[in-house]
Design a protein that fits this description.
Layout (H helix, E strand, L loop, with lengths): L5 H6 L2 E9 L2 E12 L3 H9 L1 H7 L3 E3 L6 E4 L4 E8 L3 E8 L2 E12 L2 E11 L2 H7 L2 H20 L5 H9 L1 H20 L4 H15 L7
Antiparallel strand pairs: 1-2, 2-8, 3-4, 4-5, 5-6, 6-7, 7-8
Length: 214
């Protein structure tokens, strides 16, 4: 990924963390918002058309209709629970034996389209204490960055591209700014400041791939 300002790109995302409850189970809700310079129909197509999803995220299979089951290659699967084109969809996110919930909302704005991504998950205390909201937030930030590149240029983005980017100085700056941003959002929700900063450091370490020299 070339010709990007990593700090500026990271700064395009508004981050929010809140504590909630679903069916009596405590949850954490991680929300990311940013605007894209394209119209709502085009951004909807980026998010729901399998041919385009694979160009910036990962290949997806299944019945991509309301009530259908989907599977992201090497990642999560689940059921599409709501879908109102071209405004919103929500789905279950089943990964690693756990279930969480993702909602995506689109709305037109003066410069294009605002995307709001909401990921709600049960609180697994040991995992939250180690990684905080960056456990999901950093991964989604990388996806939103890849979507930015696809919308801007039509480029594709794969696992090798992500690894190469994260090893670059621009990638490390983006990762640091993003992890710190999620740490600040956790502090705003009431997390201990030192613990949130330590969790941000853990996220940076987790998402930094080993170089060939190591």
């Amino acid at each position: 990924m070339k010709n990007i300002d990593p700090i500026a790109i990271a700064g395009l995302v508004t981050r929010e963390v809140r504590t909630a409850e679903r069916d009596g189970t405590p949850t954490k809700v991680v929300t990311a918002r940013r605007s894209y310079s394209t119209d709502q129909d085009d951004l909807w197509d980026c998010l729901t058309n399998p041919a385009r999803i694979s160009r910036w995220f990962s290949p997806v299979s299944g019945n991509l209709q309301l009530g259908g089951e989907y599977q992201i290659e090497g990642n999560a699967g689940g059921v599409i629970e709501t879908c109102v084109e071209p405004e919103t969809f929500s789905l279950t996110w089943v990964y690693g034996g756990g279930t969480s919930w993702v909602t995506v909302n689109l709305s037109a704005d003066d410069g294009g389209t605002t995307l709001e991504l909401i990921h709600e998950a049960p609180i697994w205390k040991a995992f939250w204490d180690q990684y905080g909201p960056g456990a999901t937030g950093v991964g989604w930030a990388l996806a939103l960055l890849a979507l930015h590149q696809h919308v801007a240029s039509g480029d594709s983005w794969g696992t090798e591209d992500e690894a190469t980017f994260l090893l670059s100085s621009e990638g490390q700056q983006f990762l640091r700014a993003t992890a710190d941003g999620w740490g600040e959002a956790a502090i705003a929700d009431g997390d201990d400041a030192d613990a949130a900063k330590a969790a941000a450091d853990e996220c940076v370490a987790f998402y930094t791939p080993a170089s060939d020299d190591e």
